[in-house]
Specification:
Layout (H helix, E strand, L loop, with lengths): L3 E4 L7 H17 L2 E4 L6 H10 L1 E4 L10 E4 L6 H9 L3 E4 L3 H15 L3 E5 L5 H6 L5 E4 L2 H6 L7 E5 L5 H14 L13 H16 L2 E5 L5 H12 L4 E4 L15 E6 L5 H15 L3 E4 L17
Parallel strand pairs: 1-11, 1-12, 2-3, 2-4, 4-5, 6-7, 6-8, 9-10, 9-11
Helix pairs in contact: 8-9
Bound molecules: iron/sulfur cluster (SF4).
């Protein structure tokens, strides 16, 4: 019978998501209707809420009327898309997370210096699609991809998608270093603090809980990685959009449940999950793991300053 719920203190909005959502709200307030390229962050509830306030989410910028404001999502976009938006006479506002922008700048720098680039990431993810526009690069997703890689001799460097943790990339990095003795790592790891903190916290939960629920949308890369982290530690884990997706059969034989959420998840969704479980089980102890403050904030996109 469930007795305890332990919350990850590192859950919910990261600084990049906070900034992107605030940018959309600010634009709506200043300009009325605004167009947003792709989901501003990968969370269904956030997107619905912003739609109700006046945001229009599009996947093809040809749909945007000339002279409209167009916001680029936190995942970043390619320079080609930025150019296209200027050609269409749109007014772009770049809400790309500064940590993703850092990878874009690194990619351009390394390419200019004559490096061959390898990107560790997920094919088709919005961030990967954007980053691959900044320089020619080869995407690897698995160790098997590394084995098949053929690179000409010369300087090689790898970069990584920000929503993969050090654990997620370590086998691929090991395989790359084994295959290419001269390969260089980025000067500073591309992994973002929020991704790492949220995964480290799941590892702590995994030592104390029999099941971990992760609140997040199915298309949220960082939320899915949290589920994988728990499973890597032998703990069953499920990704749920909100309280309606809780299957109470999962909680049979669980005395301590871990609860966390991805970096694009509003806190009210975690509260709703918590309320649904506590109202079903009655008197349960609920507490947070200890945390050190993340203290990271990003300035608004310069177009809004
Ligand atoms: S998860 Fe990290 S890289 Fe992604 S938006 Fe948040 S702070 Fe930026």
């Amino acid at each position: 019978m469930l007795q305890e719920i332990i919350l990850s203190p590192f859950r919910g909005f990261c600084a990049g998501v906070d900034r992107a959502i605030f940018a959309v709200e600010e634009c709506i307030e200043r300009f009325g209707t605004v167009y947003v390229n792709h989901q501003i962050v990968h969370n269904t509830h956030v997107v619905r809420d912003l739609e109700s306030k006046g945001a229009v989410f599009i996947e093809d910028i040809a749909e945007v009327p000339t002279g409209s404001y167009l916001i680029f999502s936190a995942h970043g976009v390619s320079p080609q898309l930025k150019e296209q938006s200027r050609n269409f006479k749109l007014l772009p506002i770049d809400a790309t997370c500064p940590l993703v922008t850092k990878v874009h700048i690194e990619a351009q720098d390394y390419f200019r210096k004559g490096y061959s680039l390898i990107l560790i990431g997920h094919a088709g993810h919005q961030e990967t699609l954007g980053t691959m526009g900044y320089a020619p690069m080869t995407l690897v997703q698995t160790v098997e991809d590394v084995e098949k890689l053929e690179m000409h001799n010369g300087k090689i460097v790898y970069l990584t998608q920000t929503t993969l943790s050090l654990d997620d990339t370590k086998d691929i990095v090991f395989a790359l270093k084994k295959k290419f003795s001269n390969i260089e790592s980025p000067k500073v790891e591309d992994i973002c603090y929020a991704t790492q903190n949220r995964q480290d916290s799941v590892k702590e939960l995994a030592e104390r809980c029999q099941l971990i629920l992760v609140v997040g949308s199915q298309n949220s890369s960082n939320s899915k990685r949290l589920v994988e982290t728990a499973k890597r530690f032998g703990i069953p884990s499920y990704l749920i959009e909100d309280e309606s997706e809780i299957n109470f059969d999962w909680l049979e034989n669980v005395t301590t449940l871990g609860l966390t959420s991805g970096a694009s998840v509003p806190e009210f969704l975690v509260k709703n999950v918590l309320n649904a479980i506590t109202s079903c089980f009655g008197n349960i102890s609920v507490h947070n793991l200890e945390r050190i403050d993340e203290k990271i904030e990003f300035a608004l996109p310069r177009e809004l300053n």
